[in-house]
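Narrative of accomplishments. A recurring question from our advisory board has been how the design workflow behaves on a single, concrete structure rather than in aggregate. To address it, we present the structure tokens for one chain from the evaluation set, followed by the sequence designed for it. No filtering or post-editing was applied between the two.
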């Protein structure tokens, strides 16, 4: 099950990367089009749609890699037991909020399809097509958060740490070592 979920998160991250590449291609086409006198219709709209898709599809992969910004100023000062307890509470609350947001995005996509809403750009696009990657990305993100919450609550797993957090935890920074090169430079 773990490898299947990791492949799901990786696939969503890869789709997010493809959206970023598509944005670059659209902008490049627009720039080259200006040079040769061709207008690329609704390029701003499509770049915006792809940016939203890339953002939402990349959430789960980034979460599992420890890439989301966390403010640990408060929790880093807690004892290990208190830190684990706070982490469990926050993950549980996060699950509830993310599941609610997923539901609302799916419902919004369904309503857009039901009412046949179109984008307001030069090239009209059915909004449900634009909103589908957002809903899909949020569903995958909610699976990732539920996965992490279950791992934390029942198996004692910790949240994944970013490279910077790993580095900060591996060796404390001593301020006395930082001051020595400055003193040596001022003496010279």
């Amino acid at each position: 099950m773990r490898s299947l979920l990791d492949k799901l998160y990786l696939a969503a991250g890869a789709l997010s990367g493809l959206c970023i590449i598509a944005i670059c291609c659209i902008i490049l086409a627009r720039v080259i089009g200006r040079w040769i006198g061709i207008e690329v219709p609704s390029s701003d709209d499509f770049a915006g749609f792809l940016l939203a898709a890339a953002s939402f599809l990349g959430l789960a992969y980034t979460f599992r890699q420890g890439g989301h910004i966390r403010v640990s100023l408060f929790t880093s000062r807690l004892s290990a037991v208190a830190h684990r307890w706070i982490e469990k509470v926050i993950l549980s609350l996060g699950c509830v909020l993310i599941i609610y947001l997923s539901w609302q995005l799916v419902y919004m996509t369904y309503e857009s399809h039901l009412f046949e809403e179109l984008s307001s750009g030069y090239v009209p696009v059915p909004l449900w097509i634009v909103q589908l990657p957002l809903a899909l990305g949020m569903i995958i993100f909610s699976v990732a958060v539920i996965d992490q919450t279950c791992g934390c609550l029942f198996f004692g797993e910790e949240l994944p740490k970013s490279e910077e957090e790993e580095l900060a935890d591996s060796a404390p920074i001593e301020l006395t070592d930082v001051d020595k090169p400055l003193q040596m430079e001022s003496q010279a």
